[in-house]
Amino acid sequence: LDMRRRPFWFWMWTLFFSVPAAAEIKVAFFVHRDLEGRIIRYEPGGKFAHVAIAFGDRWVHAHPHRGVEILDSIQALGTEVRILLDPNASPPDSDRISALLGLRYDPTFRWDDADSTYCSKLVANLLDLDPTRMQFRTPGWIGLRSLPRGRLGIS
């Protein structure tokens, strides 16, 4: 390496490795199927049963038994997955995610319960999405009692 060009390469090296990675939001939507292979639908016309959001190269989601957790891979959540990518948006910061880790899962889907969450509420809160009125009108909800029909939430 020519000694006269060393400062040039040093600055190029520094510039290359100091440029922050492009910010983006990545959300994974999972299809779940019943024993006959039919898609389990929780919304009329919908086909997704679970959702997770990327945090760096890992994934954050709300698990029914473990609550909010970080996973190294989304493969354990399902094999039929669709990933929505917004390369122009800023991902949730680590402080927001850290504050939610360990939060218990809410099987009653209450938007206003600050002490618990569910998968779509978790992602909606991290993305600052507004809730809508929930209806629970598909067969996927049969047998569940105390659902907040007509109340604010997100599914």
Would you write up a description of this structure?
This protein is of the alpha+beta class and 155 residues long. Helix content is 18%, strand content 24%. The chain is built from three helices and nine strands. The strands form three sheets. A five-stranded antiparallel β-sheet has the order 4-3-2-1-5, with helices on one face. A two-stranded parallel ribbon has the order 6-7. Strands 8-9 form a two-stranded antiparallel sheet. A hairpin with a 2-residue loop joins strand 2 and strand 3. The N terminus is likely disordered.
Strand and helix layout:
Elements: H1 6-18, E1 25-30, E2 50-55, E3 58-63, E4 67-71, E5 81-86, H2 94-100, E6 104-105, E7 116-117, H3 119-126, E8 132-133, E9 152-153
Parallel strand pairs: 6-7
Antiparallel strand pairs: 1-2, 1-5, 2-3, 3-4, 8-9
Q: What tags apply to this protein structure?
A:
two-stranded parallel ribbon; 155 residues; alpha+beta; disordered N terminus; five-stranded antiparallel β-sheet
Q: Helix count, per DSSP? A: 3
Helix content: 10-25%
Strand order of the largest sheet: 4-3-2-1-5
Give the H and E element order.
Answer: HEEEEEHEEHEE
> Count the strands?
9
Shape: globular
Determine the N-to-C terminus distance. Answer: 59 Å
Percentage of residues in DSSP E strands = 15-25%
**Radius of gyration (Å):** 20 Å
Q: Tell me about the biggest sheet? A: 5 strands, antiparallel
Mean pLDDT: 84
Q: What structural class results from the helix and strand content?
A: alpha+beta
Uncertain segments are 1-21
